[in-house]
Specification:
By secondary structure, the chain is an all-alpha fold. The chain has a domain at 23-64. It contains two helices and no strands. The chain is rod-shaped. The mean pLDDT is 85.
């Protein structure tokens, strides 16, 4: 009797783990999307980096 309960719960656990999946459907598509997000973030950060660079140039000119 106890063995049948243990077997039932083990079988239910195995079935639950086999039907669920945490991995993405297409790994390479997800990787490409991540790369596109990084590229877009770099493009969007360029104006801020230009301002910092210009400020550093002005500060160096001010000090000399």
């Amino acid at each position: 009797m106890k063995f049948s309960k243990v077997f039932f719960f083990f079988f239910a656990f195995v079935m639950a783990m086999s039907t669920t999946s945490a991995r993405p459907e297409n790994f390479f598509k997800e990787l490409e999307r991540a790369g596109q997000r990084v590229r877009d973030a770099i493009i969007n950060a360029k104006p801020a980096i230009d301002v910092i660079s210009d400020t550093q140039k002005v500060w160096k000119d001010f000090q000399t």
